[in-house]
Amino acid sequence: xNVINCTDLTKTYGRHTVLDHMSFTIQENKITGLIGRxxxxxxxxxxxxxxxxxxxxxxxxxxxxxxxxxxxVSANSIHIDDQMTFPPSMNLAEILKEAESxxxxxxxxxxxxxxxxxxxxxxxxxxxxxxxxxxTFNMILGLASRCALTIFDEPTTGMDAAVRKDFYRALLKDxxxxxxxxxISSHHLNEIEDLLEDxxxxxxxxxxxxxxxxxxxxxxVGLQGKKSTVAGWTHGREIIYKQESxxxxxTVVRNNFNESDKQSLKLDDIExxxxxxxxxxxxLTGSDKGGIDDVFNRIESI
Length: 302
Ligand SMILES: Nc1ncnc2c1ncn2[C@@H]1O[C@H](COP(=O)(O)OP(=O)(O)OP(=O)(O)O)[C@@H](O)[C@H]1O
Known about the structure:
This protein is of the alpha/beta class. It folds into two domains: 2-216, Rossmann fold (3-Layer(aba) Sandwich), CATH 3.40.50.300; 220-301, 2-Layer Sandwich (Alpha-Beta Plaits). It has helices at 42-49, 71-75, 92-102, 108-117, 131-144, 161-177, 189-192, 213-217, 227-234, 259-267, 277-284, 292-301; strands spanning 2-13, 16-27, 31-35, 57-62, 77-80, 149-153, 181-185, 198-203, 206-212, 220-226, 239-245, 248-254, 271-274. It starts with a strand and ends with a helix. It binds adenosine-5'-triphosphate.
């Protein structure tokens, strides 16, 4: 079953089109990573899914209903991000109590266990927490609510490396015990890829890639060797990334070489290098303005 169906979803702010006829579906009980560069539209998309803002055009259904201002969608989903605000007079324990009364599957044992583990003070006010502690508390709220649709928008902002690692482990353990649909947006694909089943990559306001993480890991390959020999092999193929020096090149293309190609590449002294899923995402969403080195090269040449 699909939890989210999205067709031709468009969101504009004035003349700026953030989401541009975006179409995709999210299946029930999967963890999907939402990946895209800064400003790609991840938060905008997640806000539409949660019903916080309205799409400009197109069609979106969450649990088969239009999500905007929809109580059924609200009761079955939780949206965790670093913009969450709570009434200033409520302490952490009171916030969790409220969540427990709103979310039917809320598990207070899990909340308490994580609270103690991360040494949070139940009497403290949310506003007074440090950046990392706020994210930790929000994460506890997100996990303990056990909502059918759980959205984490950049959940690890401010968390130190050890807390991030614990969070990913807690998420995976609780998901395995209580499967639900989870969307997690992050700039650290390398950190979360072991959690993910699917990746949805946004580029130019569209769902550029949407595929299982296992396929993304094999999606591209790097050819390393002499420029002229590699060029013969990459001619007519979409080049995803290229780094050149003197007469050598490292060129990344789609990984669709068969066994006999691989033998011939070896004979041509070309080394095939695997490309990590996070590098694939970086290359695919790279800017068309060259690399950062070009900025300095241009300054030096003035
Ligand atoms: N309320 C708004 N009014 C005008 N423009 C907006 C508004 N909200 C978002 N935008 C613009 O929409 C674009 C996408 O923003 P969004 O926050 O969705 O990106 P993002 O992928 O989550 O970025 P990041 O990874 O930096 O958090 C940006 O160019 C942003 O400036």
